[in-house]
Amino acid sequence: MKINNLCPNKTTNFAKEELENYLFSMGAPDIEITLSVENECDSLSMDDKYSINVDSSIGTISANTPRALLIAVYRYLTLIGCRFLRPGKKYEIVPVYDKIQKFFAKEEYSAHLRHRGVCIEGFDSMENIEDFLDWIPKIGFNSFFFQFKTPHTFLSRWYNYANKDGKEWTEKQSKKALDYFDTLMSKRGLIRHRMGHGWTAEIIGAKNIYGWDNENFDIPDSVKPMIAQINGKRELRNGVAVNTNLCMTNKDALDAFSSHVTNYLADNPDTEYLHIWLADGHHNFCECENCKDLTPADQYITLLNYLDSSLTKKNINTKLCLLMYEDLFWPPVKKSLDNPDRFVLMFAPIHRTFNQSYSEIKAAETIPQFNLNQTTAPKDIESNMAFLREWKKMVPCDSFVYDYYLGRAHHSDPSHFKIAKIMYNDIKAYPQMQLNGIISCQELRVAFPNAFANYAMARVTFDPEISFEEIANEYYTACYGDSANEVINIMNGLSDIFDCDYINYMFCPTPRKNSELADKMKKIPDIADKIEELIKTHNPTKYKVQEFMWNGLKFFADYIRIFALMTEYKCLGKDKEAEDIFENKLIPLVKSNEEKDQGALDASRLIQTIKSSLNGKM
């Protein structure tokens, strides 16, 4: 076996190393493969394309960037039988062959969508993040987004809350962790998305710039004029700095924002996409005399043009992501971007329904009238599409969707099969919506009962021609062997029962009483019985990891029984009974399983989401 690397750098060297290691594990064939990168070895193209031509004992794998070359190496390994079922090397299938023909493969592709990645959410350990960064290029993703300056919010949730052991996880540790994760991303050539919320909090002088905790503190008199005036007052929004906006007609505020962005990029020059988000939440834009006649989007564009001018003067070419979200769903009216090429529009429909796909619906003809700090972002698909259309008219730049399929909505659909179908159909519709990809705002532990949803997302963003059924068969066969079709049929049946919005009440509230859904929940125990019977009778498997996946279905059967009964009670208005099931059966079950398989399910996030749904609170 010989692997040649014609364009050595840290990413192509890693691609060579990975190919050598996997091929050695597969039987070390008598084969020579040459790796190459078109044009310059350090090409900065954000679009990925590759060519795999290994149809004899001498072959080639080429790509247009080092990152695409690594993706191509993993794709070649997939074509010859390797499978990457979920984050973590122990969940991989690496076959062993004794015939060289088994190593032959040929494929040529240009990625369908430019932006294909994930944004961190949830309660995460170091291992969770490391495994996820290792996994995503293996299934075809090219980007990862660390919100805030460091991942402290997400690491501290795990180490200081969900898995508290008496030792406090510190911001210093999170900064060191980010440096480590940066080396992993750099080695893989992954595109860096950074920051998001937190700019306004830092400018105000808040200590907590890493999350949404309440932090009332005395704001210096020199800072108060920079804070958005709401109801005649300039103060923290409900005590939360991250939810507090600035006065965008205040030059000191613009200068401070510009200074913070410039300093950040000076310290982090490898950032490809810097997210310039304003405060989180809604109804928090300035109402002062100078701002009140500007829509939030006009205020936002004022800031973005100011930042672009400052960065241009310093010869900084980093792309800036602007956020279409909450009050910023209403497009600019008076302002426009001076330099659209600098920017990428991010469509973030946080309140959308997940029971319908963009592919099924036509955009509404008009959008509602805007009223400052009184409007509500839309839930229905028609309106979401209409708002995007109006923004695209005013902001002619690259764009992607920042959606929440696996952020909370998937907890309404324990099979993840229905949410995966909705997601697949949405992604197919992105080009018609002038969207060039997705950054999925999601938990990293989404492998219960398996990681099919993330796998499907990665596959269709790269290859739009592959059908949902092909992806399901490909993935489920890898997980469950010759009995895969029976598992698919069960999951498909479950997808007709669950409501993707019901548990996602925090962001997409629906009526709590629902007799139709209650009746559907009565079907779940019989399906759980079928799963348990199939676990006993399924065809023999070839790989140890497949038996592990089958064993995970036992927990899944137990979970859906409890979940269905809890949901049935809630739908019938039997709140006390639903709470009792949740507290005394569901929580102990998921916490017990987390001790056995921590990477499968974010138990704390699930508990948080269901508790919100049962309480009927947003």
Blueprint of the fold:
Elements: E1 2-5, H1 10-25, E2 32-37, E3 49-54, E4 58-63, H2 66-79, E5 83-84, E6 92-93, E7 105-110, E8 115-121, H3 126-139, E9 143-147, H4 152-162, H5 171-188, E10 191-196, H6 199-204, E11 229-230, E12 233-234, H7 251-267, E13 273-276, H8 296-313, E14 319-324, E15 343-347, H9 381-394, E16 398-403, H10 417-429, E17 437-443, H11 452-462, H12 468-480, H13 484-495, H14 515-521, H15 524-537, H16 544-571, H17 575-596, H18 603-615
Helix pairs in contact: 1-2, 3-5, 7-8, 10-11, 11-12, 12-13, 13-15, 14-16, 15-16, 16-17, 17-18
Textual characterization of the structure:
The protein is an alpha/beta fold. Helices cover 42% and strands 13% of the residues. It has 18 helices and 17 strands. The chain has helices at residues 10-25, 66-79, 126-139, 152-162, 171-188, 199-204, 251-267, 296-313, 381-394, 417-429, 452-462, 468-480, 484-495, 515-521, 524-537, 544-571, 575-596, 603-615; strands at 2-5, 32-37, 49-54, 58-63, 83-84, 92-93, 105-110, 115-121, 143-147, 191-196, 229-230, 233-234, 273-276, 319-324, 343-347, 398-403, 437-443. The strands form four sheets. An eight-stranded parallel beta barrel has the order 8-9-10-13-14-15-16-17. Strands 1-2-4-3-7 form a five-stranded mixed β-sheet, covered by helices on one side. The protein has a two-stranded antiparallel ribbon with strand order 5-6. Strand 11 (229-230) and strand 12 (233-234) form a beta hairpin. It is globular and about 75 Å long.
